[in-house]
């Protein structure tokens, strides 16, 4: 842990020394998130509801997706851009050091510019939680606490899924060093998709993103309980943990990848 | 010596457009070689298209919608198919490198018009990207089951107009994004100009939300801006949600913007070059 903080300090100092670049990329992230938000607000402005969900209920999902994605991208950028780390021979240096590979890959890249997106996401999340406060707080403090805990675990579980996607993508990079843009479908595409309740998508897509990549488990399935909807079943509140199972499985793939890795360097 | 000197002094005179056409063709041919990147792009755009169609159609079920489900699907697939033709963030990384390393100075030595040269290479790069992506997307999307199916326009005239609109859209997009490259030349910050211009253009052209879904007051303002003809116009014509008879005004406006933006960009580039010291040795 102490080592990771040292990595973080080095990265932070490095990125702050090229401040204008950091500012530009942070602003880019911020504007992109704002324009996605503007699109959602425009659609709610015209149509009012989406598949039985109000604007603020969807904004809760929107905030969860943006915050979890951006924080994970900040922390796990090393896995996201792992093919570059491999191609530059950086991974061979990582292997000879007497520390775990995961920690070192995490430390190799930290993208503080993602705070731009995280900031917008956090504001959206805060707004949604305030607006939904009465519904979520109904039925006594124990139930209210359980609902807020569900929102927290949805955010953490969503982050675990994004991290798992990055790790899986990095594991694939051991097999094929170039062109893993397909991974972006799951990372960027997953973020885009899980901004809205998964119930609006086609059944096949929904099943895939529940049983294979478990976005459904951090999205509309536990959402009913978190919102205090009558008749929502409380076991759904535990579904977000599926995200951690996904992350654990992706680390197995990572270990297999590291074991069969043959250096390309000289 | 004198013989070869004579050869240089009296070359076969190529047409005045030849250098620009050559650059355009070079970018086109080079762009066509990036097939793996295009394949990944196609996969991404299919997924994106599915998400967008699902979201818009789910919203549209809640009330009166200015576009019906069929029109939504065709609007989105046409966008996705021609995305690299009309999105501002599709950048020519090599041109940006030329600008920020100062190598653009070499181009100044050549007896060609820099604006026309950049314009030609940007247009060629975009056409190559679109040529590789558009056909697979449109062909496959045409086979999807309803409500995701991509439909052909009702008649040839509407299809022809949509293609003319696409050409206008490409011309306008290059003219608009040129300002981002000019700003990169001024600030030497390669992406600074794109970060605001790209999301703004995406929103105002109908890429994030089809323009008919916007509040009426906002939509009426946006219909006067150049962005509308960069995406909304061809997509509306193709999906036949805009009858050909109503397309005269947006066409005229788009063309007028093109006639304003190109001289404006040319003047801005000339001013930027006068003000700028070239970095690098």
Give an overview of the whole structure.
- The complex is a heterodimer of chains A (266) and B (281).
- With 266 residues, chain A is mainly alpha-helical.
- Chain A has one domain (2-8, 18-260).
- Helices cover 74% and strands 0% of the residues of chain A.
- The radius of gyration of chain A is 20 Å and the shape is globular.
- In chain B, helix 4 crosses helix 8 (114-141) and helix 9 (156-187) runs antiparallel to helix 10 (192-205).
- The longest helix of chain B is centred in the middle third of the chain and has 32 residues, at 156-187.
- The two termini of chain B are 32 Å apart.
- Mean pLDDT of chain B is 85; it is low at 1-10.
- Classes of the chains: A mainly alpha (266), B mainly alpha (281).
- The A-B interface holds A 20-21, 24-25, 27-28, 31-32, 34-36, 38-39, 42-43, 45-51, 178-179, 181-182, 184-185, 189, 192-193, 196, 200-202, 205 and B 36-37, 40-41, 43-44, 47-48, 50-51, 54-56, 58-63, 65, 189, 191-192, 194-196, 199-200, 202-203, 208-209, 213-215.
Features:
heterodimer, A: 266 residues, mainly alpha, 74% helix, globular, B: 281 residues, 13 helices, disordered N terminus
Task: Please provide a brief summary of the model.
Chain A has one domain (2-8, 18-260). Chain A has helices at residues 2-17, 19-47, 55-80, 82-87, 90-96, 101-108, 115-131, 133-137, 141-175, 182-194, 203-212, 220-226, 242-260.
Per-chain topology:
The complex is a heterodimer of chains A (266) and B (281).
Chain A: H1 2-17, H2 19-47, H3 55-80, H4 82-87, H5 90-96, H6 101-108, H7 115-131, H8 133-137, H9 141-175, H10 182-194, H11 203-212, H12 220-226, H13 242-260
Helix pairs in contact in A: 1-6, 2-7, 3-6, 3-7, 3-9, 3-10, 9-10, 9-12, 9-13
Chain B: H1 2-9, H2 18-32, H3 35-60, H4 69-81, H5 83-86, H6 93-101, H7 104-109, H8 114-141, H9 156-187, H10 192-205, H11 216-222, H12 228-238, H13 248-275
